[in-house]
Amino acid sequence: ADDNNNNNSNNGAPPPATVRQSPVINLDRGDPSVFEPYWKKNGGKCTITISGHESLSYFSDPHSVCWYMEPELQEAIRRVHRIVGNARTEGYHVVVGTGSTVLFQAALYALSSSSAAVAQPMKVVCAAPYYSQYKEQVELLQSRLYEWGGDAKTYDDEDKTAPFIEVVTSPNNPDGSLREAMVANKTENGGKLIHDLAYYWPNYTPITRPADNDIMLFTLTKCTGHAGSRIGWALVKDVAVAQKMTSFMQITTIGVSKDSQLQAAKILQVVADDCESKAGAFGYGGDDADRTFFGECRKVMAGRWEKLREVVKGKDVFGLPKYPKRYCNFSGRYFQPAPAFGWLECKEGCDASALMKANNVLTRGGETFGASNRYTRITMIGREEEFDCFLERISGIHCVDEDKD
Ligand code: PMP
Predict the structure, then answer these.
(1) Hey, which of 190, 213, 268, 357 would disulfide with 163, CB 3.0 to 4.6 Å?
(2) For the residues 172-193, what does the mean pLDDT come to?
(3) Ligand 1 atom closest to Cα of 340?
(4) What is the location of CATH 3.40.640.10 in the chain?
(5) Ligand 1 centre and the CA of 158: distance in Å?
């Protein structure tokens, strides 16, 4: 397996013996293990008991558009958003999914099937670098309703009226940037929007305002780190869209595991209780917010970013995006975003992920995100030991210029 690692970035020279012997570090995945220490300490509060008679029915709440949604999950979702202030929930319908992944597909279906006569598949665009799964999901079933339209920055709506869908990921995966719609906000065109706000939580980024977009996707995966519970939710303004998304869920999976919903509700209640118990009489002062789940996790993320920047600063090989400090309404202080991924840039002519791979570090290369291979994405939310090991490894990386050899 080593032979494909040695060439690109070390210019044919075999890697040093230390690299050949060193274990492979996998920073390709977005598994949120960073929160494990917190939950090992506090997870006992989330224990629930589900009795054998509780998951018998498909149905949960006949009063809700999303009829398979457990009422306590809906209540916990609305409560956490109210406390954190990252999204408006009044006037919105909640639709629950098996992770937000399936809700992305439900939203595509809802938006594309409601256009009266679909002469052509609707284009789905997203500004590069974009989350690689969007393209894969859009293309998977070769739908006649929608098709991948690529980078929103270069999207050219030929007749200026054809309906299309723009996905806005903010903060963005992979580069952590805060984003607004690029094309679909111009009222003269037929653009519809899906906002993926998976990372709009104070453990990663300052909460500057409650988001109030038409379709907003969130997930427990990135909020609390419970990727394995597979619970995501959409906040949807238009009831007809919420109904269509629910139909998609009904036809594809007839709902979402009640056990998972109940566990997720409990986790969110524990997070909300924790926040409320630490908020002072006048809301959060910085110190109160720092002691909440979000505050503690932010400290860990910020610590990792500080260490990474320190290592990168000492090398002329790499660059990292800079994020301005912003005021966080939840935390009551200014801080710099500490995104879930590092978007590492190498100098011109260098293949960043190949360079990493030559040093036994697996990352996800820029092309996967519709960007140049000078960039690669590294996870910042993996395990501590792995992250520290990575820092040590990159301190020793050299990128040899081809023309200097
Ligand atoms: N959106 C974005 C931007 C993501 O990064 C992820 C997870 N990597 C998801 C959606 C999907 O999350 P899940 O299906 O686990 O809820």
Answers:
(1) 190
(2) 85
(3) 5
(4) 54-276
(5) 31
Ligand 1 site, residue 99, Cβ cutoff 6 A: yes
Q: Helices (DSSP H) in 88-209: which residue ranges?
A: 99-113, 132-140
Asked whether the bond before 129 is cis by omega within 30 degrees of 0, the reply is yes
Give the whole-number percent of the chain exceeding pLDDT 70: 88
Residue with the nearest Cα to atom 16 of ligand 1?
Answer: 99
| 32 CB within 6 A, ligand 1 | no
Superfamily of domain 17-38+289-404: Aspartate Aminotransferase, domain 1 (3.90.1150.10)
- Predicted confidence at residue 281, as pLDDT, reads 59
Q: What is the pLDDT of residue 397?
A: 80
Q: What is the reported pLDDT for 405?
A: 36
Does the structure show a pLDDT above 90 at 301? yes
Among the atoms of ligand 1, which is closest to the Cα of residue 101? 14
- Which atom of ligand 1 sits closest to the CA of residue 172? 3
| Cα of 327 vs its chain's centroid, Å | 21
User: Using a 6 Å cutoff on CB, does residue 98 contact ligand 1?
Assistant: no
Ranges 158-167, 207-216, 366-375, 386-395: which has the least confidence: 158-167
In DSSP terms, 25 is beta-bridged to 361
**Going by CATH, does the domain composed of 54-276 fall within 3.40.640.10?**
yes
Residue 120 pLDDT exceeds 90: no
C-alpha 320/C-alpha 261 separation (Å) is 38
Q: Sign (positive/negative) of CA torsion 129, 133, 136, 141?
A: negative
Question: What is this model's ipTM?
Answer: 0.99
The length of the chain, given as a count of residues: 405
Model confidence at 81: pLDDT above 90: yes
Domain with CATH 3.90.1150.10 in the chain: 17-38+289-404
* C-beta of residue 72 within 8 angstroms of C-beta of residue 60: no
* Ligand 1 contact via 33 beta carbon (within 6 Å): no
Report the interhelical angle of 71-84 vs 258-278 (nearest 10°). 30
Closest atom of ligand 1 relative to the 131 alpha carbon: 3
| Ligand 1 pocket: which of 28, 101, 369 to mutate (most atoms within 8 A of CB) | 101
Contact 198, 221 (CB under 8 A): yes
Does the beta carbon of 97 lie inside 6 Å of ligand 1? Answer: no
Give me the pLDDT at residue 315, please.
Answer: 78
Q: Round the average pLDDT of the chain to a whole number and report it.
A: 90
Q: Residue with the nearest Cα to atom 7 of ligand 1?
A: 30
